[in-house]
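Hi F.,

I've been meaning to write this up properly since the lab meeting, where we talked about keeping a consistent format for the predictions we share between groups. The idea is simple: the sequence comes first, exactly as it goes in, then the structure tokens exactly as they come out, then a line or two of notes. No screenshots and no reformatting. I'm using this chain as the first example so we have something concrete to point to.
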Amino acid sequence: MFIKRFTFFIISVLLCNFVLAQEYSAKAKLDSAHILIGDHLNVYLEITAPKGKPVFILQLNDKILEDAEAPFEWISNSKYDTVINQNNYVLKQTITITAFDSGSYAFPAIPIFDMDSQIVAQTNPLFFEVSTVAVDTTAAIKDIKGIAKIPVTFHELWMYVKKYALFMLAGLLVIGLIIYVVWRYIKKKQVQKLQPIIKPKPKIKPHITALKELEKLRQKKLWEQGKTKDYYTELTDIVRTYIDGQWDIGAMEMVTTDIIEALKNTEIHEEVLKRLFQAFSIADLVKFAKYSPLPTDHDISFKNCKEFVERTAEIMVND
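Output, unedited:
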């Protein structure tokens, strides 16, 4: 067990032994250096980074600790608490762990990555002790309290009958709902047969549809409601649909890098493509790496996507 703990600590330090940029910093501390077996131990992380430079923080979980043969167990990760200063921002997170064996433990250093997957900072390793609870093995084992017998009351009997009556009522409601849905479906089909054939409306230009959908997304205020992943999914889907309609590029089935490479064959300005790539990269981190962007990142990503639609629509008109 000692060899596994020591190996886990050494590997974690070697993986994070890179030259760190001075503009980034990371530190960690424990709420206690000594716990009893089974108690929860909180690790407080604090990462400082420059404004406009997103970072990626490795999120501990059961699988990571199991693969690394860590001597302790993961409980939970809190959400990030973001504090924005004049030139930088600070991310704070609490990691909760526990251990079920006594001894000395080392919580490893955690690497911090930038958008290019380069390590820009790392936390300091932490050390703590886990001890057992003293047990009197000479004392006899006995129940804390005897089993109590409680007679069934009229109220309990009435609650039992009432419980099954609700099930019967729910069943009737479900049957009624099914009949109603079938009736509406049949009636809708009958109405459709009587309706005259309407000629399809002229196809709306892709950039007009995209700008309308972007405005709807802005009014939803998804990220203000904590629905960050939904916000970036809708944002990138709107732009992907626009790209597909404007240049006949199957963007809905392509990854970000392939989309950008395909668009380089058009007359789109390089700076516009660069900003679009930035917005899509942040969206990929949110959707696949559980990254928590800054509030400014939401606005910048939205503006970059809207500018892409507007600038490329003008190009098509000029052509």
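Notes:
The first strand starts at residue 25 and ends at 30.
The chain has eight helices and eleven strands.

If this format works for you, I'll send the rest the same way.

G.
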